[in-house]
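re: ur question from earlier - yeah i can do the single chain one, its not a big deal. heres the input i used so u can compare w yours
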Amino acid sequence: MTELLIMLIKTTVVFGVVLTHVAYTTYAERKIIGRAQARMGPMEVGPHGLLQPIADFIKIFFKEDVIPLNAERFIFQIAPIIVLVFTMINLTVIPFDRNFILADLNIGLLFILASASISVYGIILAGWASNSKYSFLGGLRSASQVLSYEIALGLSLAGVVLAAGSLNLRDIVVAQHNTALGIYAIPQIIGFIVFVIAAFAETNRAPFDLPEAETELVAGYLTEYSAFRYALFFLAEYVAMYIMASLCALCFLGGWTIPKFITDILPFLERVPGIIWFAIKVYAFIFLYIWVRATLPRYRFDQLLNIGWKVLIPAGIVNLLVIAFLKKFI
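and the output i got, formated as tokens:
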């Protein structure tokens, strides 16, 4: 009973902290993009607009939930829940520190890849059930995009699994920390670059936000959604960003650890809690998401698929072969 209570408290804390981060990531994104475009961003609600996320939540919560007359009603309603549930569930297997993890699975990395793939079905169903050409095209684009970039993402992480000898995220961090450099991003630079690019496409973020593509498809699969159901998709997208940022920190940047050669020079850094280092790495990746959105234009869909199949997948295979060779003979 006590263990169950502790687990419920941990789950509540993790979900609450992540959802708070999501709310204020939208604020940070609007502020950073505003600065990039020589304007101030949100300034009206609260000091420097700090209460803007709360105002947005209240507004969207009280909006009317409109369902198109010819939509497939049940699937239309359940699609955003599928996307959110199979995105949020990934938080349970992410180790935020050596001893802070909700479910320490031996196949944690595989679990994340599998559930991320399932969440795409929600987007496809949303596009089909809306009975709108814009939504349907957005759903088809999402299916094509994930089919290509999920392979590249898996290949980039396969090199990490091969080097660490485990699918357990905590074991990957420990194995990484025991290497000379303390991170896999440098020795596996090809895999790291492939992962970063594929992560942008996997989360439908600019410059790969083709399933939404406001200039072509109005809002893609989101076109017919409103009120709280729209907010669920929005929430799932930002949680997915944090999942990918966490994967990057855990698999390529040493997770909650810092390289030994740094702590040998500055031993006082060992007293800093591991979750602080983990958070810094995650925030850096989230900032990269926002920075890229502020600076790069959207790719055409044919360019998106060409990059995935002709560049990233071959690069991921090369990275995997190099790691396998080094693992075998060095």
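The chain has two domains: 1-61, 63-329. not sure if urs matches, ping me
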